[in-house]
Amino acid sequence: MPAFxxxxxxxxxxxxxxxxxxxxxxxxxxxxxxxxxxxxxWAQLRAAGAALKAHTLSNLDTYLEQFEAAVTAAGGxxxxxxxxxxxxxxxxxxVRATGEREVVKVKSMATQEIALNxxxxxxxxxxxxxxxxxxxxQLGHDAPSHILVPAIHRNRxxxxxxxxxxxxxxxxPAPEDLTDEPARLxxxxxxxxxxxFLRAKVAVSGANFAVAETGTLVVVESExxxxxxxxxxxxxxxVVGIEKLVPRWQDLEVFLxxxxxxxxxxRMNPYTSTWTGVSAGDGPQALHVVLxxxxxxxxxxxxxxxxxxxCIRCSACLNVxxxxxxxxxxxxxxxxxxxxxxVLTPQLRGTTSEVDKALPYASSLCGxxxxxxxxxxxxxxxxxxxxxxxxxxxxxxxxxxxxVMRLASWVFGDSRRLAAAERxxxxxxxxxxxxxxxxxxxxxxxxxxxxxxxxxxxxESFRVWWQRTRGGSSR
Length: 475
Prior knowledge:
The termini are far apart. Helix 3 (42-58) crosses helix 12 (252-263), helix 9 runs parallel beside helix 10 (182-199) and helix 16 (338-349) packs parallel to helix 19. The strands form three sheets. A six-stranded parallel β-sheet has the order 1-10-7-4-2-3, sandwiched between helices. It has a four-stranded mixed β-sheet with strand order 8-5-6-9. The chain has a two-stranded antiparallel sheet with strand order 11-12. The longest helix has 23 residues, at 15-37. It has helices spanning 4-12, 15-37, 42-58, 60-73, 84-98, 109-113, 116-122, 132-139, 156-170, 182-199, 225-231, 252-263, 296-300, 316-320, 322-327, 338-349, 354-358, 368-372, 379-394, 399-412, 415-432, 446-449, 462-470; strands at 77-81, 102-105, 126-129, 202-205, 209-211, 216-221, 235-241, 245-246, 271-275, 286-292, 437-438, 454-455. It contains 23 helices and twelve strands. The protein is α/β, with parallel strands linked by helices and 475 residues long. The model has no long low-confidence stretch (mean pLDDT 92).
């Protein structure tokens, strides 16, 4: 993937993408605002969610051990994965041990993060996505572009063509008379997936929350496909980031109010599935939980950066971000797009690549993301923090910029020099700023005016105005 500036420029040329995103994000924003306004205690809920997550992260080692003990006591098995390679190896070995050559999956960003589907394919194992949007992405040989709605960049006509072209090659084909009506598209997906649900012996899931007290895993979704994955197969493998823990069952009361309102604009999720260990004759008879680090411990060590681990993957920050709305998720080069991806991905992957170094700069710092975050992650502060890290780690130096800064220091260091610079700036207005704006500056400042106008210098500085109107008096 190219770094964000180049990728964003490419995506900005896609007018259909911008139309799809603007329409979808505006709808979700309005729904969210409506249901949030219904709650008089939303601010208190938000503060409670932030406090619970912060407390859990501060005591994560204790709660992870408690969770492992609870899962084991309930008949499950916990596996620890330091990175993506180890997690993929564990899952591949578990599937191979069953003798199966295919799995069904319920939407999981953790498995996308570690590229599990590709690892399974390399081992000769087919992985079938069952979330509708994930199915669209998979059949379209595409990549997710949104946390909540991975296929947000596709419109209904595009989805119809994908279904008609691809479904028959991997299962039950789409009807010949398929239209782009949502009900018909959902029916085609249901028929296609039902065969896979009834046949699959192994399922792979993620989890929205993991309860340390009871060893319970929680998945919330809107379609019911997740519940099919979690109940029908004989073996269930759940890949869960270590930050997904909450201490007590009672804590779900807070998060199951925050998450649906912030993500889908609903008062509650249509399907909330919980499972604790193994029950004889009911559901999967083998449960494996893969606890994934993959850079999370490094993020946890950063006292400022760790707040990104509070994220509950609601996507509210994406839906209000002016940058995301115009560029889409693919420009971020990560499974985690938008504002949260710009602060989470560089901490999980580091800032060695050009893609990851550019992510903290993929923002206007308008602050809208912080305003809507249900667990009060201060994303603008984190972006500035990570920009500082990029500069410090890579010893980023610019001789022209350093020279400009030294010159500015010299000018600002003496009032007479500053006054002279102000007179020069005001004089330049007649050449550069006719009409009140500067449309083109000479290099290297032209990089700014290539994308936006610059305000022209004032006709007179504040110093001159003060002397003219007050005679230099301090009264």
